[in-house]
Design brief:
Shape of chain A: elongated
Strand content of chain B: under 5%
Helix content of chain B: over 70%
CATH class of the largest domain in chain A: Alpha Beta
Number of helices of chain A: 27
CATH architecture of the largest domain in chain A: 3-Layer(aba) Sandwich
Largest interface: A-B, 41 and 44 residues
Oligomer: heterodimer
Largest sheet of chain A: 8 strands, mixed
Structural class of chain A: alpha/beta
Structural class of chain B: mainly alpha
């Protein structure tokens, strides 16, 4: 199941709204026709490049006749409006139909071809089209093209009047609708089929995706808006020249696409602006302009093969790291009293080989219980347990790297189950905790299992909200109930909505007193989520299972029956060695975090487990 | 149609074919070795012609032509060698290699084309021909320069074939083309071999450019036409063997020559493109090819 929220719930909403409002207001700032003309060109290039991304990026079809769609739109507008005398508005709408018809024809010769061959054939097809256009000079004006095409009017109002403001808004509308179309298409069944064919052709075909039909539809869909843009462009510049078939035009559009970043609709939009504006700024340099632009394109592509979009992601990455580590540093300094009151334990920083972590320790008692929190949480989730067991046990909890008030990890490789387990072992050693009882929640449950599997000392092990995994990744869909929200656990950047949903699902509550938990999701380093999940495949899962099934260490699995993630049947039937009550214990009324939401029931059960394990 | 006209058209087609073979082989060698289509190939042809023109300007007579051609081939070899490191090597491990190299080679082509314009200006130029006069062949007068062009083109292709098959460097290049990892395990430096391939490709392009420059006029943008012709040749012939594009080059040259004669200058390219698309529909791997990508 794919997590696919509506656009207004993703983190893209705010930037897109800002840009849309800016572009809408821009003509009032720049009343100059020249600047508006440049912006109209930017919009047209953005439409061309972003639609090209559909076939080139998402579809993996190297269609180099893409500019021919635009050219067909342009010429069909010219012929329809000028030679045949059809109403200009109707002619503009006719243009995409012809472009799509050509796209359908083009799909035939490239059906059996791959890779570079497709490039060559589509270039040849575009050249063939050019030769036909040039040879029919009675209709197309031959090599000199067509001039004085009819312009668009609304009643008696010319769209060129008032500094081309009419054309500006039509172009902006065209870009907006085209982007919406691409965004929706990419997320539709057709979009998934297109990407599936690109990523694994034979698997996609074997799952019933028709290669021929999907390629045809990809090409036709990618011709729609370029054709429309061609018709619009014809009505705007009122010239149709064979230059639009040339390599120069193709190079500019392709460089916009690649400098922006392939398989990202937004990259093309950014690059269209950057490249067009740069080309205009360098307008006075003659042939040097082309040399400079080409050199810059090479430089961008060599430094950022993923394009400006990748560069933007790097910037976002940096901003996210600064934000999360900033929040952590602030809370570490100014809110330590509140946290110490909450847990009733003193807080200290402990340096380990995998980074410094913040540890809360009640520091009195013979036997220790070590608590390990889950993904995107913090040690304060165990406040109720600290209150209940502080008299009998020494209680220790710590913030994983990138979580709570621990600093972000220096290196991304420090975000993994193995290093988390080693950090836990290091804390046990440095604080002299002997053989602690280890309790892990959710992701922390895996850390606890890994801690045990690595052979570190412990007297009992309890996990909560964790399905044991024997074979990765096959057991993941068995151990967990497929839910779109599972994806959030490994997602790097969460939008405000996603933060809220994730926090709600993990602690099963939206009550005001759990708000701090929501805050900790915001603080968590996005890399921690992403890296831990991407490294799951390197974990030695059989070793964990061997511990569970063979070792005699007392073990408990304490779950909430309303847990939205765990598959209880799987957990029950998994088979364990020395398990308390002979099967997973369910806490009445508990969800994914029963210790948090049903503390009394949980603490009672946990106390019984401690007694059973012989540690009371 | 008189026999001598037929022979004349045929011979001019064959000469054209020789030039196309030289250009298309350079292109196909790069394609099969680096898995990259070099869009700067046409501007290599143009730059090669300009360098030869510049050097040949320093003297007069046939020797200046020879020096010009030699200098052009050497300089272009070096340029091609360096360009591999700038344009292709940075993303040899990138999954988008094909696309990224398309844009870098297109950009390089733009740089070379505009660089030529900056250095030599937009005016037409012609390299002084080393030979004049005609040779009588089957009762038809054929320009001696045409025959020289054909002879040198064939000699260059033979030399290249010998190099690829008989010398250890040539064999190493073919090994790297067939299986890069295995070649590297054998101790070959694949990056250098690839750069060598691009250098050789640029050198053959320059040689073709020198002759085009002495047969016709050259201007900064004239590389676009050789690029398109090489592209047609490569598709038509396929790249299965070293010889596939060479045969196809002669087919293209002769077809072009006849369609220019019978249909006129405008329709000749359309005939070629149409022929190419028909071949692709019927036999996508090319007229002289089978589906594989090795030298």
């Amino acid at each position: 199941m794919k997590y696919d929220p509506p656009f207004h719930r993703t983190s893209g909403l705010v930037p897109v709204l800002i840009v849309a409002v800016l572009l809408g207001a821009l003509p009032f700032v720049f009343t100059d026709t020249y600047i508006r003309h440049i912006l109209i060109l930017v919009f047209v290039y953005a439409v061309l490049a972003s639609n090209w991304d559909l076939s080139l990026g998402y579809g993996g079809i190297f269609n180099f006749a893409h500019m021919a769609f635009f050219a067909i739109g342009l010429y069909s507008y010219g012929i329809a409006a000028k030679v045949l005398g059809i109403d200009p508005w109707l002619s503009v709408l006719l243009a995409p139909l012809l472009a799509m018809a050509f796209a359908a024809l083009l799909a035939i010769p490239i059906l059996r071809l791959e890779g570079i061959y497709v490039i060559l054939v589509t270039i040849a097809a575009a050249q063939l089209l050019l030769k036909i256009v040039v040879s029919q000079s009675d209709y197309t004006g031959g090599t000199s093209g067509m001039v004085l095409l009819p312009r668009l009017t609304v009643g008696d109002y010319r769209l060129t009047s008032d500094g081309r403001i009419g054309y500006y808004y039509i172009a902006l509308l065209l870009l907006g609708v085209s982007t919406l179309f691409l965004y929706k298409l990419e997320r539709s069944a057709l979009g998934r089929a297109i990407k599936a064919l690109r990523d694994n052709k034979y698997y996609a075909i074997s799952r019933g995706v028709s290669e021929g039909r999907i390629r045809l539809m990809t090409l036709c869909a990618s011709a729609l808006f370029p054709g429309l843009a061609g018709g619009f462009y014809g009505s705007y510049v009122r010239v149709a020249s064979p230059d639009v078939f040339g390599l120069g035009f193709l190079t500019i559009t392709l460089s916009i696409l690649l400098v922006g970043g392939v398989s990202t609709i937004w990259g093309s939009l950014i690059a269209a602006f950057a490249v067009t504006v740069l080309a205009e700024v360098l307008g006075g340099f003659g042939a040097w302009r082309e040399v400079i632009i080409a050199a810059l394109i090479i430089a961008v592509v060599v430094v950022y093969p993923g394009g400006l979009y990748a560069a933007l992601q790097e910037f976002r990455n940096l901003a996210d790291r600064l934000k999360t580590s900033g929040i952590a540093a602030y809370r570490r300094r100014s809110e330590s009293n509140r946290r110490e009151n909450e847990l009733g334990a003193s807080e200290r920083m402990i340096a380990t080989p995998h980074g410094t972590v913040s540890v809360a320790d009640t520091a009195k008692g013979e036997q220790t219980i070590l608590f390990i929190h889950g993904n995107s949480a913090c040690k304060e989730v165990f406040a109720n347990q600290f209150a209940a067991f502080r008299d009998q046990y020494r209680l220790v909890a710590f913030d994983l790297p990138g979580h709570g008030v621990s600093p972000n990890a220096q290196s991304e490789t420090d975000y993994s189950l193995e290093t988390y387990a080693q950090i836990a072992a290091d804390i046990v050693e440095q604080l002299g905790l002997g053989a602690p009882i280890v309790f892990g929640w959710s992701l922390g449950g895996y850390v606890a299992l890994e801690y045990a599997a690595q052979g570190h000392p412990l007297s009992a092990l309890a996990i909560c909200g964790t399905s044991p995994i024997g074979i990765f990744p096959d057991d993941m869909p068995r151990g967990y109930i497929a839910s779109p929200h599972m994806e959030l656990a490994g997602k790097r950047y969460l939008s405000p909505h996603e933060n809220r949903v994730y926090a709600q699902k993990t602690v099963d509550s939206d009550r005001p007193e759990v708000r701090p938990i929501h805050q900790t999701v915001r603080r968590t380093d996005g890399r921690a989520r992403q890296q831990v999940f991407s490294r799951l495949k390197t974990v030695n899962w059989p070793r964990q299972i061997a511990f569970l099934r063979n070792e005699t260490a007392p073990f408990a699995m304490i779950n909430g029956p309303e847990d939205p993630f765990i598959n209880h049947d799987y957990c029950r039937a998994f088979g364990y060695g020395n398990i308390w009550t002979g099967e997973p214990k369910n806490i009445v009324g508990g969800g994914h975090a029963p210790f948090f939401i049903q503390p009394e029931n949980f603490n009672k059960a946990f106390g019984e487990f401690l007694e059973w394990s012989g540690n009371s | 149609m008189a026999l001598d006209t037929l022979i004349f058209v045929l011979v001019s087609g064959i000469v054209l074919g020789g030039l196309y073979a030289l250009m298309a082989t350079g292109l196909s060698v790069v394609w099969t070795t680096l898995n990259v289509f070099n869009f700067a190939h046409g501007s290599f042809v143009a730059l090669g012609a300009y360098i030869a023109w510049q050097v040949a300007q320093q003297g007069t007579g046939a020797w200046s032509f020879v020096f010009g051609a030699g200098a052009s081939v050497l300089i272009m070899f070096g340029l091609g060698f360096v360009m591999h490191y700038c344009l292709i090597k940075p993303f040899e491990r990138n999954q988008n290699l094909v696309l990224l190299s398309v844009i870098t080679t297109l950009a390089a082509s733009s740089i070379i084309e505009n660089g030529i314009q900056l250095a030599w200006g937009p005016r037409d130029k012609q390299i002084a021909a080393p030979l004049t006069g005609n040779v009588e062949l089957f009762g038809t007068a054929i320009a001696a320069l045409d025959l020289l062009t054909l002879a040198i083109a064939i000699a260059a292709l033979l030399a290249l074939a010998m190099f690829l098959r008989r010398t250890s460097t040539g064999r190493a290049m073919r090994a790297a083309a067939q299986n890069r990892e295995a070649a590297e395990l054998m101790g070959f430096r694949a990056a250098r071999l690839f750069a060598l391939t691009l250098g050789i490709s640029a050198a053959t392009a320059a040689l073709a450019g020198v002759f085009i420059g002495s047969l016709r006029f050259i201007n900064p943008a004239f590389g676009a036409d050789p690029l398109m012709k090489s592209l047609i040749v490569v598709i038509l012939g396929g790249v299965a063997r070293f010889t596939s594009p060479i045969y196809a080059a002669f087919v293209v040259g002769i077809v072009e020559s006849f369609s220019v004669y019978f249909l006129g200058l405008y329709w000749a390219p359309a005939v070629l493109f149409a022929m190419m698309i028909i071949v692709l529909l019927v036999k996508p791997e090319g007229l002289f090819g089978f589906r594989s990508r090795t030298l």
